[in-house]
Design brief:
The structure is a single chain. With 395 residues, this protein is α/β, with parallel strands linked by helices. The chain has 2 domains: 31-191, 3-Layer(aba) Sandwich (Rossmann fold), CATH 3.40.50; 259-394, Up-down Bundle (Dehydroquinate synthase-like, alpha domain), CATH 1.20.1090.10. It has helices at residues 2-9, 41-48, 63-77, 96-108, 123-135, 149-155, 193-210, 212-220, 222-226, 230-250, 269-278, 285-302, 310-320, 333-349, 372-394; strands at residues 31-33, 54-60, 81-87, 116-121, 141-146, 160-165, 168-175, 180-183, 354-361, 364-370. The strands form 3 sheets. The chain has a 6-stranded parallel β-sheet with strand order 1-8-5-4-2-3, sandwiched between helices. Strands 6-7 form a two-stranded antiparallel ribbon. A two-stranded antiparallel ribbon has the order 9-10. Helix 3 (63-77) links the parallel strand 2 and strand 3 (81-87). The longest helix is centred in the C-terminal third of the chain and has 23 residues, at 372-394. 45% of the residues are buried. Residues 1-5 and 384-395 have low confidence and may be disordered. Bound molecules: nicotinamide-adenine-dinucleotide. Residues 60, 62-63, 66, 89-91, 94, 121-125, 127, 147-148, 150-151, 154-155, 158, 160, 169-170, 187, 190-191, 195, 198 line the site of nicotinamide-adenine-dinucleotide. Nicotinamide-adenine-dinucleotide (NAD) binds at residues 60, 62-63, 66, 89-91, 94, 121-125, 127, 147-148, 150-151, 154-155, 158, 160, 169-170, 187, 190-191, 195, 198.
Length: 395
């Protein structure tokens, strides 16, 4: 009895507080831009991942026959064991079925934790291959070898990887920073003009956001871009990557305050996504973004953020770069309603607000908080006043 009492009165030890430390690793990575850089894949990989033996080259049915053998040769020359995984070309491949199939192929090929994935292709391959690398064995090394202009200047830089879900695009994803990005502009010689234009729209966006000089240089280089003059294209790609890279470097995990971080990269995308959906995906993403850039310029003027003339400058840049400009065709009737629905959905996902990226001037962005109706009114008011100006001048 007395023993029991003494055990009860004994002081309980203090709970232990364990400190689990997560040292912040330097996750910086080089982006190597230059003709022939695809042939340096094996050497770059060897240099950065001494323990790698197997390297899965994930590509799509268009890109693999064009560049798969070069990538594999470069890897074998460096003493690595290349494994080929090819997915069907197109956005539909960014789904769970293809993702799990790719992961199963990684397992069956005997890939281990120290091995690596190379994503050789456009943004679809980069996003899906990147997510497979992020998930396989809780994450293995990833090297991005983007082959479309959009993937070179945009999708491969920033570490976002994802697949689509039936309810929306890019909804299942991760941040998985690559070990390196290798950009070989010469592969653009086989990319069709329409896809090239989609990449140009994103480059123009980077200029509009962060560098009026880049914006102007792109317009001047329009013919050289479409004739694949690599002496002109290569430094423009490097500048565009530098501008995006600086932005994502300020806000790697997209946590930045509104107006300061990656959210700015949505310039042209609020209306762009809505138009893309309203077109039933007949417009390519970059084409819809081009219209979204014009919309952003118009809203910036209508809300009094920018001086008059910004929309005219944007429209003539888009036209010079052979991108669509017919925004007004998408604002009325059924299309207009579809856009309003898409904006409302956007609003729901973002706690009742649409953070609309606008421009004070070329090279100087700002973020406005607007309701979907305010966005549409700003777009349509200008149409109405432009139409009544035209009517007045016709009188
Ligand atoms: N992760 C990000 O930060 C980010 C950013 C922007 C876009 N994305 C994603 O990127 C995807 C769009 O990328 P995309 O436009 O590259 O699409 P894509 O990967 O479908 O490529 C477009 C087409 O070009 C072909 N192709 C690619 N390179 C080629 C080459 N050198 N020669 C011949 N054909 C070639 C492809 O096979 C495909 O048919 C979307 O899924 C989008 O969500 C991701």
């Amino acid at each position: 009895m007395s023993e029991r009492r003494s055990s009860r009165s004994r002081k309980r030890p203090k709970p232990l507080a364990l400190d689990v430390r997560v040292p912040v690793e330097d996750q910086s990575y080089p982006v190597i831009v230059g003709p022939g850089s695809l042939d340096r894949l094996g050497a770059e990989l060897r240099q950065r991942l001494a323990g790698a033996r197997n390297v899965a080259v994930i590509s799509d049915t268009n890109v693999e026959p064009l560049y798969g053998a070069r990538a594999r040769k470069s890897l074998s020359d460096a003493g690595l064991n290349p494994i080929t995984i090819t997915i069907p070309a197109g956005e539909a491949s960014k789904c769970s079925t293809v993702l799990f199939d790719v992961i199963e192929q990684l397992l069956r090929s005997g890939m281990g934790r120290r091995d690596a994935v190379v994503a050789l292709g456009g943004g679809v391959v980069g996003d899906l291959g990147g997510l497979a690398a992020a998930l396989f064995m809780r994450g293995i090394a990833l090297i991005q070898c983007p082959t479309s202009l959009l993937a070179q200047v945009d999708a491969s830089v920033g570490g976002k990887v994802a697949i689509d879900l039936p309810v929306g695009k890019n909804l299942l994803g991760a941040f998985h920073f690559p070990v390196a990005v290798l950009i070989d502009p010469e592969v653009l010689s086989t990319l069709d003009d329409r896809n090239l234009g989609c990449g140009i729209a994103e480059m123009l966006k980077h200029g509009a956001l962060f560098s009026a000089d880049h914006f102007v240089q792109l317009i001047a280089a329009a013919d050289s871009l479409y004739s694949r003059d690599f002496d002109v294209i290569t430094p423009l790609i490097a500048t565009s990557v530098g501008l995006k890279g600086a932005c994502v470097g300020r806000d790697p995990w997209e946590q930045g305050e509104a107006g300061k971080g990656r959210v700015l990269l949505n310039l042209g995308h609020t209306i762009g996504h809505a138009i893309e959906a309203a077109s039933d995906y007949e417009l390519a993403h970059g084409e819809a973004v081009a219209l979204g850039l014009r919309a952003a310029a118009r809203v910036s003027e209508a809300r009094g953020v920018a001086e008059p003339g910004l929309e005219a400058a944007m429209t003539s840049a888009l036209a010079a770069l052979r991108l669509p400009t017919d925004l007004d065709a998408w604002l009325g009737g059924e299309h207009g309603e579809a856009i309003e629905r898409a904006l409302s959905l956007d609003k729901k996902r973002n706690a009742g607000r649409v953070s609309y990226v606008a421009l004070v001037r070329l090279g100087e962005p700002t973020v406005l908080t607007l309701s979907p109706r305010e966005v549409l009114m700003s777009l349509r008011e200008t149409v109405t006043s432009a139409a009544s100006d035209e009517a007045a001048s016709a009188d």
